[in-house]
Structure prediction request, 300 residues.
Amino acid sequence: MPYSTLDNITQQAVARWSTTHDPRLRELITKLIPHVHAYAKEVGLTHQEWLAGLNFLARVGQWTTDARGENILLSDVMGLSMLTVMLNDKLPKGATPHTVLGPFYVDDSPELEAGANMAEGVAGEPCFISGQVRNLKGEPIAGATLDMWQADDEGIYEVQLSEKSGPYLRGVYHSGPDGRFLVKTIAPLGYAIPMDGPVGELIKGTDISYFRPAHIHFIMSAPGYQKIITHLFKRGTEYLENDAVYGVKQELIADFHRHEPGVAPTGEKLDTPFWTIEYDFVLAPEGATADAEAKQAVPA
Ligand SMILES: [Fe+2]
Prediction:
């Protein structure tokens, strides 16, 4: 092949990277190069812009720590995280859908009894989440795991608090023999995504809303069923239609009911107003996919 020219450099780079040993990595790289080259040609990328872009990515990396997923945030606000979720969501119709994991999950949350408070000592209005975990046939799933986490009333997650040592607004619950669960926490509020880093700087030069609607995170799992990573969103809350990370799905919007002081679903008497949510999760069996379902529906 001759020396590089504007016309052949893309082909040359693809040919060079076609020697990547791992087949999937080879596909990922060799398909990426033509897109990046086409982009540079389309916008007429200047040397200054090329360097600014690379320096921006370097700064995103410098801001990224275990407690601060600036890299994930960049993907989130560009819609890439949610696009990836949707590309990989092959769950059959009727199953509770996935949404983004987000950067604040901690995987060693304490096991809590039904009705136990995962927001012990945290300011906010008490909120009780109950419902049933079911399969696609409507049968209850006993012993399903609900691994939950949320932000506090200032929109802060545990990993963002350097002074916190114990579990803060997170816990693992299980469904009972009838598939039902009961969680006590605080009512979630909407919050701003972290705006003090390079991604925030970029957003400040736009009219983009950098808020997320009120939500609670869940990872739902049960033996023999597909794990789902999802949220519950509060119906009627702000930012549902312009979630900064594109995470809202119609099926994940739940009704939150506010109650005057009185007897809560746990049986305790509260002298403050409180909230209740009733929401059922539906899990699909391992191996079941929307594609398989569609094939089955076609008569032979
Ligand atoms: Fe969140």
Q: What stands out?
A: The mean pLDDT is 94.
